[in-house]
Amino acid sequence: MTMTEEYSPSTETPVPGIFDSYFRATRTATWGFLMALPLLLLYEAGIVWVNHGTVGEIRITADIWLKDLIPSFGQAHELILLGVVMVVGVLIVAIERKKKVAFHSKYPGFIILESAFYAILLAVIVSGFTQWLMSPMMSVQEAGHESDLVMQLVLSLGAGLYEELFFRVILVGGLAFLLRLAFPKAKVLMYILAAVIGAITFSAIHHFGNMGDPWELSVFVYRAIFGLVFNVVFLVRGFAVVAWAHAIYDVMVVTGFLSMLQGT
User: Fold this and answer.
1) Would you put residue 162 in left (φ > 0), alpha (ψ -120 to 50) or beta?
2) For the chain, how big is the Rg over CA atoms in Å?
């Protein structure tokens, strides 16, 4: 055997590891749709259940905004909307087939674990930084406590789905797209600008309208940092991860796990 034969590199194409393909695949719109389905079904079923027998239906505000854009179909409105979502999802999967998006039975579990990591990181680091910045210490509990726990849990799932769809996909994603068209040579800077504008808008909008929170600088700053972190997660990791991270974070708030993490 010659030296050339002994040390020649292998011509076989290396097989990418599961985590390499995981990070590439799960930031696509295909996985965003697949991971949004459980949140959508649980939220819509939960809303019907918790609102049964009540006079006025309680829903996530972003849910109402998005559905107000679509004409009402009477009593079959929700079913028709679900059908529209399914058709759009099938179109997304079909369009992205050329990307050869990887599918693996472990991916959904990985997404939930990754999202939980970001949610806990947000709870510990962002709230701690905001409290230090806005001294004296503030309370970061955002959810109301007048409604029962089941209602709050259902709304948490809706927040993860609809608020991320509205603020991250439509607002930040759309803004980043337009800014990149206007300034194609400053891609990174445009992403940063879109993330910052989106974060300020996300925080400010919580203080508008009849149902808006009273103005408080510490709360505004906290939500702005919250929005900025999730904007970065969305731009880097995609809709699937950020939607579940938001939902898990809100669940930690309403169950009191967030307060336990912060030692309050």
Assistant:
1) alpha
2) 21
